[in-house]
Specification:
The chain has 305 residues and is α/β, with parallel strands linked by helices. 48% of the residues lie in helices and 13% in strands. It contains 15 helices and nine strands. The protein has a nine-stranded mixed sheet with strand order 1-2-3-4-5-6-7-8-9, sandwiched between helices. Helix 9 links the parallel strand 5 and strand 6. Helix 1 crosses helix 3, helix 2 packs antiparallel against helix 3 and helix 9 runs parallel beside helix 10. The protein is globular, with a radius of gyration of 21 Å.
Amino acid sequence: MERLPVELVAYIVQLAAYLFRSSDRVTVLNLAVTSWFVYHTVAPILHERIVIESAEERQTFLKLIHNELVAVKVLKHVRFLCTGTWYINTSPLAPMLVKIKTIYGPIGLWNDIAFAQAARGHAIASDLRLWTADLPRDLKDVHRSSLQSLTRVHTFISYSSFHVEDTRDPARWTRSILDQLPHLTHLGFSHVDPEQVQLDAEERGPEDLGLILSMVSACQQPCIQVLALRITGRVIKRLSAYIRIALAGDAEWAMRRLCIWVDQRDIADWKTERELIADDARRERTIWTEAKSLRWYVEAPDEAT
């Protein structure tokens, strides 16, 4: 390799780092410490994604950002930040996060970064996977200028979010999201309710189906290019019914814009869900990459079980 042109060596090193950054990060780290040349070559790839899952990883990250010299070198490359349920005060770091585009975590984390970025004229992260059960309420606490930048949002939804005595209904709840996010094009919902897994599927069937119908109807607006639903557990048994309900409305809109991710992984509790979020972040798996169009399910009826 010593006889190869420097440019070709750099390309080989970058390609190796890119191929192994998700599946074998230790290899990329070992590669980075071989020389300053290699480190500077792979640093943009190595630090592009930061995933914080455990308390130990959180402490490591906090130590890193307290060293301003190190923080500048690392954070300037970050495009993706996942903190799961951890809230980390990133306000002092926001000026260094000049390339960040995607955030998985509490809405307060994104709000801190977005506000600081907007104040400095930087592009604001526009793709979020938020750990919140009541997005419309939480959006009211976000600075208005930050809301203008959002184009993709993925959050949670379940029938237990809407109590019988509550004045909210799923359609109005969904429209409230759209009203606050004028530039939103992709809206995703994870239909996860681990605490209810012991309930028989038939008990909640009509309620869940009504929930989905209301949300699909509310999202039939020109601005929404993709409405993605991630269904898990016993909800998967009602996939065929979901499809029938979606087609009973504006079938043309649903066939073009409604996508469904049938997530077969076992989700026994919210701890498991948090672990899966971190795993998805590391493997670059998103609702946008995994969900298949409604047309795919209609044309492959054997999958709609």
